Amino acid sequence: MKNTLTFQPPVIAHRGASAYAPENTMSAFTKAVQLGIKWIEFDVMLAACGEMIIFHDETLDRTTDGKGEVYRFPYSYLHTLDAGKWFAPTFSGEKIPTFSEVMTFLEETSIYANVEIKPAPGQDKELVLRLVEEIETHFKHLKSKLLFSSFSAKSLRYLRKRMPEANIGLLLHHWKRHWAATSDKLKCIAIHVNHEILTPDAARNIKDMGQSLLCYTVNNPARAAELFSWGVDAVFSDAPDKILI
User: Fold this and answer.
1) Which end of the chain, N or C, is surrounded by fewer C-beta atoms within 10 Å?
2) CA distance 197 to 191
3) Is 192 designated active site?
4) What's the CA gap between 169 and 187, in Å, rounded?
5) One of 56, 79, 141, 178 is an active-site residue; which one?
6) Preceding amide of 9 cis, omega within 30
7) Cα–Cα distances in angstroms (integers) from residue 215 to residues 13, 19, 172, 219, 223, in the given order
8) CB 170 within 8 A of CB 199
9) Structural domain count of the chain
10) Contact 234, 39 (CB under 8 A)
11) Residue 197 is part of a domain; what is its CATH number?
12) Annotated catalytic residue within 14, 138, 173, 195
């Protein structure tokens, strides 16, 4: 599948500009835009009611004033939680966004997004079906600006079947057996690699495959420069402005 995506500047705001605002919130995404970043990354999962929400952890405890597993609660409850004051008092009252809210934000700002699919156990198909339905119904015109990724090959297989033209990236925290074959079967255009496991040879191999090579999570400008010298196309960063120094 032909890769038409470019990354300029070569940095993606990880869960938004999450060094400056609470991760995966509208404040973090807005801050990324204010910093001149053209790409944001966020995580999508399902609430109990089927609403798609932007959230990273399996539980509410770390980044909200709620407790328990996220997928057990409907959005009518999740929307009442404070998703900002854990980060700083000035962000008190920040809400967990919906996928639809963030997509509307993409429309208004003309930026690109890496959508990480994070299904709860057994929800791979349900989440992908909801995702595709929402995009095809309301945001079809944004498909070329979206790069989907996941650690779940099952989710990506469902996505490729339901949205054949989707831009897909395979996430690798550790090197897995047959990862290259998996990427080929999924017709991935990108490999998203934990920067701690990347070597110059591995980077060269991925680039020789014709893939975009993205690395997470890089907050050190010197490390970013080294990765770029190996052929890395972009890095995910909590402080994306510092990577550009």
Assistant:
1) C
2) 13
3) no
4) 9
5) 56
6) yes
7) 12, 17, 10, 11, 11
8) no
9) 1
10) yes
11) 3.20.20.190
12) 14
Tell me, yes or no, whether 177 lies in a domain: yes
Q: What are phi and psi of 243, to 5 degrees?
A: -65, -25
One-letter amino acid at 232 equals V
CA dihedral 34, 39, 41, 46 (to 10 degrees): 90
Structural domain contains residue 44: yes
C-beta of residue 161 within 8 angstroms of C-beta of residue 144: no
| Averaged pLDDT in 10-residue chunks for the chain of 245 residues | 87 98 98 98 98 98 98 98 98 98 97 98 97 98 97 97 98 95 97 98 96 98 98 98 88
Residue 222, judged by CB atoms within 10 A of its CB (0-12, 13-18, 19+), counts as exposed
Residues 6+ apart with CB under 8 A from 58: 69, 70, 71, 120
Active site residue 138: no
* Segments forming the whole domain that contains residue 205: 11-59+97-243
